[in-house]
Design goal:
single chain; alpha/beta; TIM Barrel; disordered C terminus; oxidoreductase; 5,10-methylenetetrahydrofolate reductase; oxidoreductase activity
Length: 308
């Protein structure tokens, strides 16, 4: 296990916000096979046992996904691959993928989502169908995460409402109530705390008590974040980036999630039962850049691999 630094200041001696430090405990991060290849050893940049999601983009061979999972699990991290329903042909394919992940990388957790594909490649259209298949339960998966959309999803609700996404979460809550697996909601990235807080409180008021792992865009150029936000359908909180783009003094500076996380962390301290339990990073500006930002802001730092 890597030696860990629990100091109250970052490496530059800057005071760390203790609320953010607490909020960052056990954060997770998302990679893809091609971005993971750029990291020589994840033990040099991530806390031991960090959960690493592996995004499965359409066209990525399952062999590349499994090889990435095997490599990262071999470095001591909890691997959570995506299972996008719409690119899985049938139940035989689903069970084969699960077996490959288990046999090669010892995987026992997954993020189930519809996937960013308009037309299904086979029998599945939604993560609910994946859950109903029983394949993950049969394989003994211990943790299953499902997607959340604090600002809605126009692929699911073309009218801009939250009708279908909310109904899906109610279904998943009911499934969780009868499942042996630990379940949670992992969300799309957002930039503004107030709408996220309202969304999480609305879920709780409607009986949806699955823990929420809030999606956070890591530090990146403003233009990069705007591009990804539009592509991913991020809605209301995109205005935060648009306002910043109009400020010429900030236009060329990297955007960081400091304000967003500070606001959420303060709300969590004031409301301990608040449904957001973890931070999940989308490292849109690079994995190392995101990992270093986390360390500088209180995320437990990792020692060099030679000290593991």
């Amino acid at each position: 296990m890597a030696l860990l630094n629990f100091g109250s200041k970052d490496t530059a001696g800057v005071e760390i916000n203790p609320q953010v430090e607490s909020f960052l405990k056990d954060y997770s991060i998302e990679v893809m096979p091609r971005t993971a290849e750029k990291i020589e050893d994840f033990r040099e940049i991530l806390p031991a046992a960090t959960r690493v999601y592996i995004a499965h983009i359409e066209g990525t061979p399952i062999e590349d996904m499994v090889a990435t999972a095997k490599r990262i699990a071999g470095e001591g991290f909890a691997v959570m691959p995506h299972f996008p329903a719409r690119i899985i042909k049938d139940e035989a394919t689903l069970r084969n993928w699960i077996a490959m992940y288990q046999d090669e990388a010892g995987v026992e957790q997954a993020l189930l989502l519809a996937g960013g594909v308009t037309q299904p490649h086979g029998d599945y259209d939604s993560s609910m169908q994946l859950l109903e298949s029983g394949a993950f339960g049969d394989a003994g998966f211990k943790r299953l995460h499902v997607a959340g959309h604090p600002e809605g999803n126009k692929d699911i609700d073309p009218d801009g409402s939250m009708t279908n996404v909310d109904a899906a979460l109610r279904w998943k809550q009911a499934f969780s109530d009868t499942s042996d697996a630990d379940m949670a909601i992992a969300t799309q990235f957002c930039f503004e705390a107030a709408p996220v807080i309202d969304w999480a409180n609305d879920l709780a008021a409607n009986g949806i008590t699955l823990p929420i792992h809030i999606g956070v865009a890591g530090p990146a150029k403003l233009q990069t974040l705007i591009k990804f936000s539009i592509a991913c359908g991020v809605g209301a909180s995109l205005r935060v980036l648009q306002r910043r783009a109009k400020d010429l003094t900030k236009l060329l500076l990297p955007f960081t999630p400091n304000e967003f996380l500070s606001d959420l962390a303060a709300h969590k301290v004031a409301n301990p039962d608040f449904g957001i339990s973890h931070v999940h990073f989308f490292p849109l500006g690079g994995i190392k850049t995101n990992a270093n930002w986390a360390i500088e802001n209180g995320g437990t730092s990792a020692a060099p691999a030679s000290q593991s």
